[in-house]
Each structure stands twice: as structure tokens, then as C-alpha cells.
């Protein structure tokens, strides 16, 4: 027998104990297909249960997507509706008790993934409305519908990338460095990655006190990148200088470390919406003992959902 599950009670923005939604049997969400790769749909069942029948005219279901930011009015991404039931009684209403009403909406191919942040959000909902005999009287229920977007990263985004210090930096601080990232596209569920760091110090007195690593999110107003930039740190890690490999090499000193950076589950995907540009950036800061010298390594990375990883899992 197929298992039928329903949204969590906390997913309801507005609830009515006579109306509730369910997923298709053996599904754990309303979403089917892979948005960004193929056709994606929102589907399920609306259940109406009135122990005592009520007089109603029609039952309408709305599928709505909204983008909200601090600095602009709400933007409607999608607004579709379907009449799931309409009375056939010539008088314009009839008694109803129990209904089981399947539904389906196609998700626009350019829809953005759902996310929530302090500065902006993209949210999709299903809202069911029963229009009663008395036109001003309605029953309604609204539930959040998470939507995920997938991509097929090109090979160059999945290959290791080595970034190196510039000559002017080497001459000024007498430090050379290179950092090797395992790739530049990271799946939102990959949890962590490690950066291979190598530094050559031409000053024999320099010793590393600590390495601080960050994963930072930057949210920009697409219309004005600078004035409305917001930052959010997804991760901060620290490595003591005692845990870093140090190898003398003549008058130079070579330092080597594997710097781990966590990818938390609440990170925002790298994307552009109507109002926002969301960037994710890796930062590694190397701080030396008894010196004002430090090295800061930054690189924008892509965070999203890799369809190839999903299908292989």
C-alpha cells in the first residue's frame, strides 16, 4: 500500500481544520521533475472535510511565487489559479461535505529557487479558497511549497583550480602562496570542501599564528551593487599555527595546510533574481606572529544543485 504524506504543520501560513494538502503517494514534496534541467511541476491533492455540509459556490487553488526585499515592492514571479470545483446547480451554490481534489501546475522554466534570508526571500505557496454561498464568507488554507533549481555544471567548474599570489605581493611581503580548490562549483548538500594551501616565506623570522577561513554570502541590489550590498557569513573556521606543516628550505620556510570550509544547509544558492544578485565567496586569512603582515586569499565560488550528483545518488 502506498504511503501518503502531508506538509509539516509549520509549513502552513494559514490553516483551516476542514482543509489540508497531501503529496502524491510515496512523495515527500509537491515538486516533481528537475527545474532548470527539464519540466518541473507542482502537484498533489487538496482534501476537503466538512462533517456538517456547507453551501458553497466554488473551490479555487492559487499557485503564487513572490520575491520580497527590503528596498523594493514585492515582485510576483508566478500567479496561476485553477478552479478545482464549481457548482453545477442553477441557483449558483450547493451543499458540499467531503472532496478529494487532485491538482497540477507547471513551474515556469525561469523560476528562481526558494530561499529565505534577513534581506530578501523567494517563496512559493499554494492557497486554496472555498467561496461560500454568502459571498463575503470564505474558507482558506495556504501552505509553503519549497522549489529547488538544478544545473549541469560544465567540466571546468568541476576541475581543480589553482590561484597564486601576484608578483607585486610577493615582492612587498616576501611571501609566495598558492591555493588549490578541488573545484569552483559546489553542491549545496556537499557539506564541506578543503583548500590545499602552500606558502613560501623568504623572511626566516615569519611564523604563522593562525589561519582563519570564511564562507561569505553577498547580497546585492541588481540596480545598485554598492549602496545596497549586504553580507552574511555562512561559516568561520580557525586553524592554529601549531597544526600547520612547516619545512625549512635554506633561507626560506615552506608552510603547508589543508584548510577546511563547511557548507551549511542554510546557505543561499548563487543566483540572480529580479532584484538580487547573490554571490558566495571563499576567504582565507593567514595571520603571522609578531607582525602586521597578513595574507588574504579570496575567490568567488558557485553554490547550487548538481543534477549529475543527484541522479548518481
From TrEMBL:
Residue ranges constituting the Arrestin-like N-terminal domain according to the UniProt record: 78-144
Source organism per UniProt: Funneliformis caledonium
Biological process, per Gene Ontology: ubiquitin-dependent endocytosis
One GO CC term, this protein: cytosol
Molecular function via GO: protein-macromolecule adaptor activity; ubiquitin protein ligase binding
InterPro entries referenced in this protein's UniProt entry, alphabetically: Arrestin-like_C, Arrestin-like_N, Arrestin_domain-protein, Ig_E-set
Name recorded for this polypeptide: 6824_t:CDS:1
Amino acid at each position: 500500500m502506498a504511503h501518503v504524506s502531508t506538509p509539516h504543520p509549520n509549513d502552513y501560513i494559514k490553516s483551516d481544520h476542514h482543509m489540508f494538502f497531501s503529496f502524491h503517494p510515496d512523495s515527500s514534496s509537491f515538486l516533481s521533475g528537475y527545474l532548470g534541467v527539464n519540466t518541473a511541476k507542482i502537484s498533489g491533492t487538496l482534501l476537503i472535510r466538512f462533517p456538517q455540509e456547507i453551501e458553497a459556490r466554488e473551490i479555487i487553488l492559487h499557485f503564487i511565487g513572490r520575491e520580497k526585499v527590503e528596498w523594493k515592492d514585492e515582485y510576483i514571479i508566478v500567479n496561476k489559479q485553477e478552479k478545482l470545483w464549481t457548482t453545477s446547480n442553477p441557483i449558483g451554490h450547493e451543499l458540499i461535505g467531503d472532496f478529494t481534489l487532485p491538482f497540477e501546475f507547471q513551474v515556469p522554466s525561469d523560476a528562481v529557487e526558494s530561499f529565505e534570508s534577513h534581506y530578501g526571500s523567494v517563496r512559493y505557496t499554494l492557497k486554496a479558497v472555498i467561496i461560500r454561498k454568502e459571498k463575503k464568507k470564505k474558507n482558506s488554507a495556504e501552505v509553503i511549497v519549497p522549489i529547488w533549481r538544478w544545473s549541469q555544471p560544465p567540466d571546468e567548474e568541476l576541475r581543480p583550480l589553482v590561484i597564486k599570489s601576484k608578483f607585486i605581493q610577493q615582492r612587498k611581503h616576501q611571501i609566495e602562496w598558492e591555493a588549490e580548490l578541488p573545484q569552483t562549483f559546489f553542491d549545496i548538500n556537499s557539506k564541506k570542501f578543503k583548500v590545499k594551501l602552500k606558502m613560501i616565506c623568504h623572511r626566516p623570522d615569519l611564523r604563522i599564528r593562525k589561519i582563519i577561513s570564511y564562507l561569505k554570502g553577498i547580497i546585492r541590489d541588481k540596480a545598485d551593487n554598492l549602496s545596497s550590498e549586504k553580507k552574511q557569513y555562512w561559516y568561520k573556521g580557525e586553524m592554529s599555527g601549531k597544526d600547520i606543516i612547516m619545512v625549512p628550505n635554506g633561507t626560506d620556510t615552506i608552510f603547508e595546510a589543508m584548510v577546511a570550509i563547511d557548507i551549511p544547509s542554510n546557505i543561499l544558492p548563487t543566483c540572480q533574481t529580479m532584484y538580487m544578485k547573490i554571490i558566495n565567496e571563499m576567504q582565507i586569512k593567514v595571520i603571522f606572529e609578531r607582525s602586521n603582515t597578513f595574507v588574504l586569499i579570496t575567490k568567488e565560488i558557485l553554490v547550487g544543485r548538481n543534477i549529475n550528483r543527484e541522479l548518481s545518488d
